[in-house]
């Protein structure tokens, strides 16, 4: 059955159930946390740290586009390609113009396609129809055999070529290297000075590494704009390990990855219907059983705003301050449109705290081990 749709203010086709309610539309803007929180631009965008680069308050993650190592049941095909393009176009229609990819996304056998190449293609196709301005974030893979600052510039040039652009808005070190980190940071600085990137960031960096990176770039007058880390209602490590506080203090944007816990916080996976594939090993029926009371409460809170659980948990992140930018992954147009409904309203402080306190009852899953390097 086709869902009923209406066209929203930005020309965005929204299924009726995703429309903002009157209560939601009247709600307050999110709070800023800390003196150094990123500036909120007039058009509702935020700046990436001290870089001056504006991005939408929510970005779209493109890890699953073309990937057959973790996502897509290990198979890529034309149907999935069309759906991914639908996700890109729907994001633009809804005013979301910030996209996160990486040189290693879209890897695998079974017809995998590099995510940067797909994003570049989608941008080009869209630009053939109309002028669109997007902000691209991509990442350098700190592989052990890559040494020295030159390896960063060389990988970046390959990324730019796949994306079909002469510069990107944000270039990030995907994870700390086992060695060679000073060289990587110097390479980031070189990329910035050469005008190949408008802002530089890191990802999966601990508080200690973040401070070192910040200071090293600062000596060259370059702001460290962001740290992209795993952060969601049920994975609050950044609140506990000093990363969030350091970002607030230094004016660094915290880009929240896996913000809907890889689909688990949408409420669609239950103990009787757990996710398949690699996610099934992380989010087991036992874990999902413990999660149900929280999911039920999220649904109740969502109902009072006429919002879906996905929109509630993304709004919970946005409520953590204007320097938190979630980047949920969308596989199709409907998922991307749903994300847009997380913007333009705000949970109350009491709801934010109640959800955090309920989430504390659930033991977090094991994250990406590189964040402990
Ligand atoms: N820096 C890093 O090390 C790192 C690590 C991980 C991710 N990331 C970045 O963060 C982005 C997002 O993280 P993620 O993809 O791991 O997890 P996520 O955004 O928490 O979850 C994405 C998944 O949730 C499901 N979903 C999305 N929208 C939905 C909706 N509206 N309703 C129901 N289900 C929905 C989809 O999977 P199904 O439809 O199959 O359920 C989708 O693939 C990535 O794309 C990537 O850009 C970075």
TrEMBL record:
It comes from the Eukaryota. GO terms for molecular function: oxidoreductase activity. SUPFAM superfamilies: NAD(P)-linked oxidoreductase (SSF51430). The gene is LOC102704990. Belongs to the aldo/keto reductase family. Keywords: NADP, Oxidoreductase. InterPro entries: Aldo-Keto_reductase (IPR050791), Aldo/ket_reductase_CS (IPR018170), NAD(P)_OxRdtase_dom_sf (IPR036812), NADP_OxRdtase_dom (IPR023210). Pfam families: Aldo_ket_red. The keyword Transmembrane does not apply. This is NADP-dependent oxidoreductase domain-containing protein. Gene3D superfamilies: NADP-dependent oxidoreductase domain.
């Amino acid at each position: 059955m086709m869902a009923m749709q209406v066209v929203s203010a930005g020309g965005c086709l929204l299924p009726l159930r995703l429309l903002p309610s009157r209560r939601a539309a009247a709600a307050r803007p999110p709070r800023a946390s800390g003196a150094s929180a990123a500036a909120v631009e007039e058009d509702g965008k935020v700046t990436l740290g001290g870089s001056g680069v504006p991005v939408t308050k929510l970005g779209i993650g493109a890890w699953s586009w073309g990937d057959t190592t973790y996502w897509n049941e290990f198979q890529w095909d034309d149907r999935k390609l069309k759906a991914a393009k639908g996700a890109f176009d729907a994001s633009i229609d809804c005013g979301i113009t910030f996209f996160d990819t990486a040189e290693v996304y879209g890897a695998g056998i079974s017809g995998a396609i590099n995510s940067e190449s797909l994003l570049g293609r989608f941008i080009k196709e869209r630009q053939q129809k109309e002028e669109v301005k997007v902000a691209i974030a991509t990442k350098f893979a700190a592989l052990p055999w890559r040494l020295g600052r030159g390896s960063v510039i060389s990988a970046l040039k390959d990324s730019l070529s796949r994306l079909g652009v002469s510069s990107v808005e944000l270039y990030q070190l995907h994870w700390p290297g086992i060695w060679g980190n000073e060289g990587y940071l110097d390479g980031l600085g070189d990329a910035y000075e050469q005008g190949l990137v408008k802002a530089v960031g890191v990802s999966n960096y601990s508080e200690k590494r973040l401070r070192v990176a910040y200071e090293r770039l600062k000596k060259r007058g370059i702001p460290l704009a962001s740290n992209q880390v795993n952060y969601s209602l049920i994975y609050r490590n950044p609140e506990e390990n000093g990363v969030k506080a350091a970002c607030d203090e230094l004016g660094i944007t915290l880009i929240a990855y896996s913000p809907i816990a890889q689909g688990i916080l949408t409420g669609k996976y239950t103990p009787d219907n757990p996710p398949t594939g690699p996610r099934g090993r992380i989010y087991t029926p036992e874990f999902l059983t413990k999660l149900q009371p929280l999911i039920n409460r999220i649904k109740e809170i969502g109902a009072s705003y006429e919002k879906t659980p996905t929109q509630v948990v993304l709004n919970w992140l946005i409520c953590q301050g204007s320097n938190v930018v979630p980047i949920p992954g969308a596989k199709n147009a409907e998922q991307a449109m749903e994300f847009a409904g997380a913007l333009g309203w705000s949970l109350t402080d009491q709801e934010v705290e109640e959800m955090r306190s309920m989430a504390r009852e659930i033991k977090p899953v094991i994250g990406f081990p590189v964040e402990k390097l």
